[in-house]
Design goal:
Layout (H helix, E strand, L loop, with lengths): L7 E4 L5 H12 L3 E5 L13 H12 L4 E4 L6 H15 L4 E4 L14 H31 L6 E6 L2 H5 L5 H21 L4 E8 L14 H6 L2 H11 L11 E5 L2 E4 L18 H11 L3 E2 L6 E2 L2
Parallel strand pairs: 1-2, 1-4, 2-3, 4-5, 5-6, 6-7
Antiparallel strand pairs: 7-8, 9-10
The structure holds nicotinamide-adenine-dinucleotide.
The site of nicotinamide-adenine-dinucleotide has 33 residues, from helix 1 and helix 4.
């Protein structure tokens, strides 16, 4: 018995890295999976069906059920196709894992329009498009008196939450996904849909070579640690958890608390009066959180 027995999942970007780990973990826990992957390079160029085909073959080899989808997850038609494939070929839809992503890092002063547009499009639009298309189905089910136990798990990033230099496009997209997830959680709960986000840390082609890790750290950076959390969040047991952002890797699972109200100053219509008031609340308020627990940065 698996914790997702009989359920149907869509995983975007499931041909490699974290998405592959999510798809395999969901299948091991009894879910049938639409394995979506465009098969692009890490920077988003090109297409290749073979990564998704391999994951489908791996799931079938373990006795599970999977179908391939090679749509661009950020296209409206592609998102609809994934939902239709889940319903028509796998008999339902319970879980969406929005994971597809690319990187085009650059200091913002040198960043091109295309580097901005492509990165924000793949991350943010795919998350919105697949969630929107799936939510149409879940709302119809709910209105028909068949309340779903549906789950959306989105992928944000430490870069988005804690603001990495050199990743303005990626960080903006990932921060957008974190906020989107909380809005979606608030809107969709009435239809039996929970929405959470994960900020993973794992060694994949996206992150390999960025830094040297020792053997212990490499074990903790195995995508399977993240996939286990995704699998649990996808299960019926996780119905009470929605609108949360989880930092996830082998070292532990941390809840990223949202923006918080800091100190307040009296407002003024005269800008000349504001200096000392702003200095006071600047001194009183917490600094921006850094990427590691306990770090505080200015700015
Ligand atoms: N690896 C990490 O430490 C880390 C950290 C934070 C966030 N993330 C996020 O996790 C997700 C997975 O990253 P990864 O590290 O596994 O990278 P990866 O490059 O190994 O995998 C990403 C997959 O997404 C697919 N993809 C790209 N654009 C697509 C599109 N438009 N439609 C469908 N598929 C598409 C690629 O073909 C690839 O197989 C991404 O959203 C990434 O930003 C990863």
């Amino acid at each position: 018995m698996g914790i997702n027995d009989g359920r149907v999942a869509i995983v975007t970007g499931a041909g490699r890295g974290l998405g592959r780990a999510h798809a395999l973990a969901l299948a091991r826990q009894g879910a049938s999976v639409v394995v979506n992957d465009l098969g692009s390079a890490a920077s988003g160029e090109g297409t290749d069906a073979s990564p998704a085909e391999q994951v489908v073959a791996e799931i079938e080899a373990m006795g599970g059920k999977a179908v391939i989808d090679t749509s661009d997850a950020a296209s409206w038609d592609g998102a609809q196709r994934m939902v239709d494939t889940a319903l028509e070929k796998l008999g339902g839809l319970d879980i969406v894992v929005n994971n597809a992503g690319i990187l085009r890092d650059r200091m913002l002063i040198n960043m091109t329009e295309d580097e901005w547009d492509s990165v924000t499009r793949v991350h943010m639009k795919s998350t919105f498009a697949v969630t929107n298309r799936a939510a149409q189905h879940w709302r119809a089910q709910s209105k028909a008196g068949n309340q779903p136990q549906a789950r959306v798990i989105n992928t944000t990033s430490h870069s988005g939450l804690y603001c990495n230099v050199g990743q303005a496009n990626y960080a903006a997209a990932k921060a957008g996904i974190a906020s989107f997830s909380i809005v979606a959680a608030r809107e969709l709960i009435r239809y039996g849909v929970t929405v959470n986000a994960i900020a993973p840390r794992a060694t994949t082609r996206m992150t390999e070579g960025l830094r040297q890790w020792d053997e212990e750290a490499m074990k903790m950076r195995d995508p399977d640690w993240v996939a286990a959390l995704v699998c649990w969040l996808a299960s019926p047991e996780a119905g009470e958890i929605s609108g949360r952002v989880f930092e996830a890797w082998g070292y532990g699972i941390t809840i990223a608390e949202s923006w918080q109200h800091g100190a307040t100053a009296e407002a003024s219509l005269d800008p000349a009066e504001l200096g000392p008031r702003i200095a006071e609340i600047h001194a009183k308020s917490r600094k921006n959180a850094g990427i590691d627990i306990g770090d505080e940065l200015d700015p």
